[in-house]
Amino acid sequence: MAMSRAAAAVRQRRCGPLLPAARSMASWFGHVERAAKDPILGVTEAFLADPSPDKVNVGVGAYRDDDGKPVVLECVREAERRVAGSTNMEYLPMGGSVKMIEESLKLAYGEDSEFIKDKRIAAVQALSGTGACRLFADFQKRFLPDSQIYIPTPTWSNHHNIWRDAQVPQRTFAYYHPESRGLDFAGLMDDIKNAPEGSFFLLHACAHNPTGVDPSEEQWREISHQFKVKNHFPFFDMAYQGFASGDPERDAKAIRIFLEDGHQIGCAQSYAKNMGLYGQRAGCLSILCDDEIQAVAVKSQLQQIARPMYSNPPLHGALIVSTILGDPALKSLWLKEVKGMADRIIGMRKALKESLEKLGSPLSWEHITNQIGMFCYSGMTPEQVDRLTNEFHIYMTRNGRISMAGVTTGNVAYLANAIHEVTKTN
Amino acid sequence: MQNTGHITMALAVDASRFEGVPMAPPDPILGVSEAFKADTSDLKLNLGVGAYRTEELQPAVLNVVKKAEKLMLEKGENKEYLPIEGFAAFNKATADLLLGADNPVIKQGRVATLQSLSGTGSLRLAAAFIQRYFPDAKVLISSPTWGNHKNIFNDARVPWSEYRYYDPKTVGLDFEGMIADIQAAPEGSFVLLHGCAHNPTGIDPTPEQWEKLADVIEEKKHMPFFDVAYQGFASGSLDEDASSVRLFVKRGLEVFVAQSYSKNLGLYAERIGAINVICSAPEVADRVKSQLKRLARPMYSNPPIHGAKIVANVVGDPTMFGEWKEEMEQMAGRIKNVRQKLYDSLTEKDQSGKDWSFILSQIGMFSFTGLNRPQSDNMTDKWHIYMTKDGRISLAGLNLAKCEYLADAIIDSFHNVN
């Protein structure tokens, strides 16, 4: 495409003198469109740009302390002190840190899991939850090419991106019940029953993102049973173990139920929230196999998928995880700290609900304390959210999702008041 | 629903979903390390290793890296997610290092840079981008090349073909063949070039040959795609090792460049690198960057912080940057020394008059010895020297003390084995 003199002149003004051959060089990338901004990140950007002293960021998907500051856990700092300078930086094996994987499996499957003893679990260190899901999706595409994935409505938006880029067809299943702000259990069970036998389902093990709505233990048992009847494959995304209830064993209950029922599961684990290791990208993907031989084969294939993506996973986060979980005292400290985070969030849920009730809100806010984990699906409309932002400088995603991690004793009253203002005429 | 009791494993009748999953083939290079470990001979030498070793044949963390980590510990920064494109200070530093901080393309905002998972991750992002936006294009890769290149393009579903590169007769570059194959490829192909220290051969084009390559690539409207895994590690000079890339950029071409800090900063396990796309205009770079982000998000969301902070700290502090350059010169220097010693030993011991100077003209961690498969086997079986079957040795795994022994082995294998 020849450039007109006018266009060249514009280009010259904008970019400075053209390099000798550039004027004859059309860009290769003329057809590459600008990608839409990530909806969640856009919220933080807008928040940062807002000069108001009252502004509140409840869009953020990372834990904040009661002063609204990011937190690095004490156990993490201590682990970092211990590992500094103590090891070389040679490549980890393709499957990642053996120690980290061992400890991750104990967390997810149980310390005394027979599956661990029998070496039936194919497991690799992964790039946090995203990387674990992506490895599994790619594995599905390669070895189960006729399969598809059932994803709950709604879910973390990146789930859709992951399975789409892996070229695995997606379906959805009912999950959230807007009227009750709770679980659409009947709809969910129907979709499970109606899905073709042997379908793959993505389940949030605890603290569903973005709704905070989890099945009860009884409901999980029924789901598990129906999965057995239909021979469905359960893939658990567990991004909040320990962070939801404060007790990692309790948060893994759904997984344990399925394991007891004889399911062979897949599981993505992330240490982003429960250990505050967000940017370190520490996670694990595991798949329960028939036997040790199969586990070795499956693991070898997961490694084959990882190799042309990033060769081997990053070390630092893995060192932190294995140092903490491998040392009883540090692990104890971690358990205390993760409970502290969960308790603060649970406390804020209570405070927000009570504040709204005190303000005389005509609506029910039970769901704030019924829901669990980092997020609360408030039930507010996009228009109400816009009002919160424009009138009150409160930032959240337009689906009405509140990140409880961003709520503090300092802002809960302000937040409650604002929510009341925009919803009182509902 | 009649029976709501738990169904035990004994009653479950599912056929295994994973029965059809075969064992993946063993990693060829890993196999070398394992065989080396199992060998009990005192004479054994591991020349398969792809990571730098000191003169004592030990792995090492650069002093400047230890300093940076100590600094980071003291600063006690948080571990928040990086943006999808990575750590801003790292991205700036890496583009500056690659192109030179005062490069007009940087000043003009024409470079799209994403921090990614070392060289592999950078190549994979680029490959995914190529598949999405240039689905009919082919990538041309050298014969031979790093084993994982083919895996990356295969998994990204980008077709590739090879251009001639290594000439076994001269144990040097088949430049005529290389030019001919690049010329013969369909217009608009992506040409994968090793910026310096070609892996596995150690054979790099001369500056004049780079100019000719740029001529042909420009003429055929191909896209140059550089893999820069050894900047600073090859010659000891960051600028010199980037000269091939800068030559192409200076011509006004759009260029892809994948970078890695695994070797030059010894950050192997932290997976730190970058994909750079030099574009014709800033708004093009903007669009390209946005689409690279869209590819990265469903792969890993955002890249790991630790390695990025180390690089940014080292490059951002003049003292540490100076120390890094010194340590890099030392690493490159040690490799040059063993090359010299090996050459001297070979020339001294070999009575046949064979020209071993390719050892000196090759550069970087690896060398193609010109030994064929049975000869390479002899190196291992008789001499306990471990290398890959293509005749590649890693100079990083060699020290001065072992050069004579290695020379004996090479001479024996070359002359006495067919």
From TrEMBL, chain A:
A single Gene Ontology CC term: mitochondrion
Domain called Aminotransferase class I/classII large: residue spans: 54-419
Gene Ontology BP terms: amino acid metabolic process
InterPro entries attached to this UniProt entry: Aminotransferase_I/II_large, Asp_trans, NHTrfase_class1_PyrdxlP-BS, PyrdxlP-dep_Trfase, PyrdxlP-dep_Trfase_major, PyrdxlP-dep_Trfase_small
Reactions catalysed: L-aspartate + 2-oxoglutarate = oxaloacetate + L-glutamate
Subunit comment: Homodimer.
Record EC number: 2.6.1.1
GO molecular function: L-aspartate:2-oxoglutarate aminotransferase activity; pyridoxal phosphate binding
Any single Pfam family the record assigns to this protein: Aminotran_1_2
Domain of life: Eukaryota
Gene3D superfamilies: Aspartate Aminotransferase, domain 1, Type I PLP-dependent aspartate aminotransferase-like (Major domain)
SUPFAM superfamilies found in the cross-reference section: PLP-dependent transferases (SSF53383)
Keyword Transferase among record annotations: yes
Keyword terms: Aminotransferase, Pyridoxal phosphate, Transferase
Essential cofactor(s): pyridoxal 5'-phosphate
Keyword Transmembrane attributed: no
Similarity annotation: Belongs to the class-I pyridoxal-phosphate-dependent aminotransferase family.
PANTHER family given in the database record: ASPARTATE AMINOTRANSFERASE (PTHR11879), ASPARTATE AMINOTRANSFERASE, MITOCHONDRIAL (PTHR11879:SF54)
More about this protein: In eukaryotes there are cytoplasmic, mitochondrial and chloroplastic isozymes.
Protein name: Aspartate aminotransferase
From TrEMBL, chain B:
InterPro entries in alphabetical order: Aminotransferase_I/II_large, Asp_trans, NHTrfase_class1_PyrdxlP-BS, PyrdxlP-dep_Trfase, PyrdxlP-dep_Trfase_major, PyrdxlP-dep_Trfase_small
One Pfam family this sequence matches: Aminotran_1_2
Catalytic reaction annotation: L-aspartate + 2-oxoglutarate = oxaloacetate + L-glutamate
Gene Ontology terms: biological process: amino acid metabolic process
Record keywords, A-Z: Aminotransferase, Pyridoxal phosphate, Transferase
UniProt entry tagged with the keyword Coiled coil: no
Domain Aminotransferase class I/classII large residues, every copy: 44-410
Coiled-coil ranges per UniProt: none
Name of the top EC class for this enzyme: transferase
One example GO MF annotation: pyridoxal phosphate binding
EC number in record: 2.6.1.1
UniProt KW rRNA processing keyword: no
Note: In eukaryotes there are cytoplasmic, mitochondrial and chloroplastic isozymes.
NCBIfam families with a match to the protein in the record: PRK09257.1
Subunit (UniProt): Homodimer.
Protein name, per record: Aspartate aminotransferase
Lineage per the UniProt record: Eukaryota, Viridiplantae, Streptophyta, Embryophyta, Tracheophyta
